[in-house]
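Hey, I was hoping to borrow your eyes for a little while. I'm sending you its amino acid sequence along with the backbone structure tokens. Take your time with it, there's no hurry, and the full record follows here.
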Amino acid sequence: MAITLLQQPTSPNGSGGDIIYVVSSNETAQPQHKFLLDVKDGNDVLLKRLKQPTNPSGYCVFEISQIIDDYMGYDEVWNTTTITSSSKSNIKDFKIYAGEEYGASTSGSVTIYNGNGGVGDPAVGGGTKTFIPAVEERSEGFNWVFSDYTASYLTNSPLTQSVSTDEWGTLTHFNITGSNPTTITYTVRDSNNTILGTTSLTNTFSTSVEDSKIIHIPVGPKNLSSLPTIGSILQGQTWNTLQVVSNTNLGTITYKRRDNCIPQNGTRFAFINKLGVWDYYTGTLTKTQTRSFNTNTYQQNFIDYSTNTPTITFNPSRRGETIYNKTIDAVFSAQTDWLTQSEADWLVELFESPSVLIQSDNYFLPVVITNQNIDMKTNPRGQKLFTYTIEYRLANKKKNRK
């Protein structure tokens, strides 16, 4: 009398893929037999219990990605000025246990048996599983490939990007492979490659603590504006590049200063990428805004039948058609600069993202991407020049007028 766990997901894993458990038992012929699967949080609090019969071959397959994904979220760290751990939104630990239930007859009560052969809640599991809201496409397998990002940041963005002095930005890193502490070194250079300043930040979070298994690193000039040595330099116009280097061989990312003499033409997007964390991109070309108005009216009588005086005077200003509700919808568009092949491929993640914001001074406003279709850059030989038009509306609409 025992449960056998035949398949389970690797850890860490992405909640945006297929999370599969396969179990079997030698008790499937028992009356009213069903397999149980308990999904618990990292503190063993039950979140969901699934019940499922065996298939004709004697196995039971559970797919629990929707349950896991419901408990995931995104850290709001756009303006962080220090290396920050998760708020337990972007990364979570779960414990999954398998068991079974059956009765002595087809009509009697059932008893729960744990996977070790005794009476009790499900007890067979593969240990603690760690998840982030990363996506794993079905053409690529059942398990998100964590090893692809142990020596890099959680982004598919190009290693060289452009940024303005007034822009915020972050990078995210897994902190669960013994890389703690992580020291990030920032080096600012001018156009002659002369070092203007350098400084560093160090992460001291424990890799054994759930919310410290993922860390967010400030990289935008605005995030770094208060740092010694380089903060004031990044708010000026004499620097050319900001180089971000980690002591844990995560690779080097370089930010080139973009001339922001016409800042009103740029739109800074923050979006959740395929790895479940924030990426940033600025559409630098002209942005547009289109407003549409929907007006509801009624016809008011020219003669005031509700008068409170003994006589009715002639009032040429009395309104006939009267507005009782007016809704205002604004649709915006932002144009990207000319894109390389790698930039075009990466920016598809912005259109696919479940959460997109735009920077407005020191705030980020939620928006909804409204593009129904995009033409993708897929031919580097035939598509030498390529841009995207990003269409969006504010998630919080203007107030109705009455």
